Amino acid sequence: MIAWRKAAVSSVALTMIAGAPVLAQDNKCEIDFGGAYQLTSANQYLAKGQSGKADEQPRHMRNAVEVLTKDPGKVKNQTARNFILGQALTWWALRPGSASVVRRADIGYKSNPSDMIDLYAAIDTAFTAVETSQPGCASETKRFRSQIWTPSVNAAAAFINSDQLDSADAALNRAMRIWRGSPLPYYYKAVILQKRNDVPGATTAFLEAVRQIPADMAAKDSNMMQIRQQSIYNAALFLQRQADDLQGEAKTAKLKEAAAQFKAYVDEYPQGPSVSNARIGLARALGASGDTAAVASTFAPMLENPSNYSDIQLFEAGTAAFRAERKLDAAKLFEYGLQQNPYYRDALYNLTNTYLATEQYDKMLPVARKLVETDPNYPDNWRLLAGAYQRLSAKADPKTKKAQLDSVVKYHERYQKATEKVSFVGFVHAGAKHTLTGTVENLTEKPASYTITFEFLDKEGKVVASQNAPVSVPAKGKTDFTVEVSQPGIVAFRYKPIV
Predict the structure, then answer these.
(1) Total domains in the fold of the chain
(2) pTM of the model
(3) Which side of the chain, N or C, has fewer Cβ within a 10 Å radius?
């Protein structure tokens, strides 16, 4: 069995926008506020309520609401009436300490005074009437809506980032009650459902966020592009996760849905931050759904023009190709990646396994040798080297057969009698800073102390930095280690054998 090591793990990434976008401006707004005394009086009350003495402002705002709602049918210009009413209600909603649902009489309504009124819904109703009658006034109504909407959405983002999901839900509900013209709340709702592990709900919400942000909108706004990009990718991942729990035709159908989203990401964002993982997901979904011809086309651009892709992209594509049973393609992709980064240990490991699976034993041997030179204390590497010699010996001439069989015994014994095992968890790059993390396992019955000498390499395989990592490990135990170096140009590492 091939012990396969992934070049990268796909995961759902959270991207929160730091602030709400500025609301878009529309056409010219022309509303006639003259004629009816209700409009004249309400405008006067509104002005006094906005700029008069603080203790008198509530009375003026009640009067404005009263004159506009006492007998609304008598006002011929309903657009003007609703525009002023929306402003007055916005003032009440923004008043410090004000609740979003209040008693009607408390803000000036004379009809049904004891009933409760949802201020946000009432504001939305008033401004929607204005926008329906005068579409050019949407920029003006949005200016008032945004006074509630923007802080509500920003509060939701902050609550999400601190995992206060109920509070985030409440903030989003406030935002959606006042204005539904932005995709942000749909995306934030998807993130909340994701954090609650509601996979079907999150999938639907991410797809809705994609629908709310068409490609032409995303092209004009970098924030919207980021959200659309992330939502397509997340929707694809969640569709694939749902498919994993299904069987038969239902599984195939869900995999095709996932493939469609992965393909949309790859086609729309060929240089996107998750394009490699999206390509892997696409190949996996297509392969699992039985569309092997489409799997081949997924890797064709990379095989035809590998120089257009980074080493990591080629390595990750190789992983995807192997899983999709395109093993010869996988070998080529790993080879192309190693031309750019010849000592990347996971790629060496994966290519060795790929040559084993494709019976390319003559190619397997030199890569396995390089693997054990790079990663000498991972026992499985020696098993692979022994395996290469064993398979070559089957067709060797008598002069070389004995030497090859001796190598099989030698390296298999190295595998079986290993006294320690070094494994790696991550190799993270942040500019010139590089962090290598891993684990040393003591396979013996006695405590042991080791000093591992790591060498960090550039793309040509030259040593540009080194670092010692002292590690003490209990008998039959494990100890984690972290090594950090700061040096530009580092792309790979190797270490000297523990003795």
Answers:
(1) 4
(2) 0.65
(3) N
